[in-house]
Amino acid sequence: MRRLASATACRGCRCPRNIARAVARQQDDPRSVLNGFRAFMRWRRARPALRWGEIEFIETDGPVLAFIRRFEGQALLLMFNLGAAAVEVVLPAVSGKLTAIEGHGLQMGSVHGNTLQLPGHGAWFARLG
Questions:
Q1: How many CA atoms lie within 13 A of 119 on its CB side?
Q2: CB atoms within 10 A of CB 12
Q3: Higher model confidence: residue 118 or residue 107?
Q4: Domains, the chain, ranges and CATH?
Q5: Which tens digits make up the pLDDT trace of 57-69?
Q6: Which residues 6+ apart lie within 8 Å of 63 measured at CB?
Q7: d(C-alpha 94, C-alpha 70), whole Å
Q8: 48: phi > 0 → left, psi -120 to 50 → alpha, else beta; which?
């Protein structure tokens, strides 16, 4: 039977790679991945459309994922750059004004006219209305 070294090498050990990722190490660091994730989840919980809304995917060019979530009169546009390089995309034609939503803690894109500039692995959230 062949064992996979990568699957068992750090199990139960005190390898520096695992220690740095431990919850006990991250919970006191406001810039840790753990606390970033917790902050994003709190932000998401405050927006019912992100939790329970219907989803409408929007076709885009490049490595951009875009969709609208709608729930009980709330509509949100979400756009994510899934690539490492910055991209520019034309905002989708939607009815109503787009108002950027901040506070999510992710790298945020910026709008110039009808073009959205998204940094690598960045995101942009907006209210429709």
A1: 6
A2: 7
A3: 118
A4: 12-43 (no CATH), 48-128 (2.60.40.1180)
A5: 999 988 999 999 9
A6: 81, 82, 83, 87
A7: 13
A8: alpha
